[in-house]
Input
Amino acid sequence: MPNGLIVAAFGRHFILETEDGQRLQAHPRGKRSEAVVGDRVVWNTTQAGGEAQAVIESLQPRRNLMHRQDMVRTKSFAANLDQVLMMVASQPMFSESQLTRAMVAAHAADIELVIVLNKVDLPDAELARQRLQPYAAMGMPMLELSVKAEPAATLAQLTPLLQGRCTLLLGASGTGKSSLVNLLVPQAQSRVGELSQALQAGKHTTTHTCWHWLDEGRTGALIDSPGFQEFGLQQVAAADLASYMRDFRPLLGQCRFSNCQHRQEPDCAITKAVAESRISSHRHRIYLEILEELQTRRW
Output
């Protein structure tokens, strides 16, 4: 049976791209739909209403998998990524909690994350830079863009980073994510509309994750995911959370207690670093907030 690539997901309905670039409507064999955008799958052909459709028989092994959570449930939504671009903005000012959650999710899946600060042409850009200073200090890759004001410069910065790689674009509503997608993939909106129309899902085109090729040779790809208001981390074990905090990691194992939770325990290397301003107190508060959720919330 042939192999294919999932390029769009609409609930239990999918768009599958064949090895020669043809796109087919697809659905999973059976009731469960575990496939996500970026999955490589084994498929078969069936006829439905006189049109050829693909039946997803099985998933190929994944290199990684990204999850996100809303108020109701956790969802896997993208697989086999080379990197994540986390887009934040100076206006509206970004949420450090959302940024940290995305970083934890990416690090837990062993995926590189790049922070992209957009709208640096606006007056609040300097404040945004100050808020991002702790992330720069811990060595997080970071870019500054003005997508609408300087599209040519944006393309010059991003093209080498995206070439030949599969990139997931994340960001809250209002960060300029749609503008960036339209700049990188001018036909993106019409393509998403065509896909959703094929699956009779046209009223919800902005809520779906879609794969866009960035070049004719199909070597680089951008996965566009809907903006989020919450980013839960149900897939992360509470005991592992500190290891996914990049600024905590160098100090792990230096606390008095091996099971230290870095709250108020005596001789905690993390809280000592916070007191000495070597770790941002705000970052530590976000860690405690997420830890509390993971330990007490029933998802």
